[in-house]
Amino acid sequence: MKNSLLKYKTLVFDCDGVILNSNKIKTEAFYQSALAYGEQAAQALVEYHVANGGVSRYKKFAYFLDEIVPTLAPKVSEPSLDELLERYAEIVLHGLLSCEVAEGLEELRSKTPNTNWLIVSGGDQEELRHVFSKRGLDKYFDGGIFGSPDTKDQILEREIDNSNIEHPALFLGDSKYDYLASAGAGIDFIFISGWSEFEDFNMYFLDKKIKCMDSVCKISI
Fold first, then answer.
1. How does pLDDT run across 53-80, given as a tens digit for each residue?
2. pLDDT at residue 221, as a whole number
């Protein structure tokens, strides 16, 4: 990796599992939020969530109500989608405000003063901006902090179109979707493995010539 980061005009970071050690917080929040529909349905949502890392909560809960509940909890009709989202947000916000932050961000930022930094996450955009402001992390991301309900594909396309993301660009993510979104946008990719819930990443990236690193602090200039 030595000397490679300085060629990029833009660095795009996922949030959960890359900047914040929050994947397990969100997994538990999905389980707890859905538990009113029964343990089997809640566990099925967790499995769907883990298999679709990086996809927004809005799509995951919609899938839960449309596909999982009719099969595993057909007689249960509450909580509603809005209530599920509200409960999930309450649990997650507490965790995001207290979870571990990736080491080395300040040093990496100081070594890339001319590089535009963005967050592009599946997390709720307003929630992300609140958390990053509260934790003093927003100062690093001069290119902005973006999240759902827009998808990562939509965000990347929009920010490229308005020249906020300039090529060459690099995406640092921890999910299959992060990789696919970056590839679709013509952005280089590094997989950050340390906090990821993508268990088969080694096999998945084996033939794709993708660098895998434990954390962003391991990236050298």
1. 889 999 999 999 999 999 999 999 999 9
2. 67
Using a CB cutoff of 8 Å and minimum separation of 24, what contacts does 35-41 make?
36/76, 36/78, 36/79, 37/64, 37/69, 37/72, 37/73, 37/76, 38/72, 38/73, 38/76, 40/72, 40/73, 41/68, 41/69, 41/72, 41/73, 41/76
Ordered by start, the domain boundaries in the chain are 5-21+102-218, 24-96
Given 3.40.50.1000, 1.10.443.10, 3.40.50.150, 3.40.930.10, which CATH number is that of 5-21+102-218? 3.40.50.1000
Beta strands in 94-151 (DSSP E): 116-124, 144-148
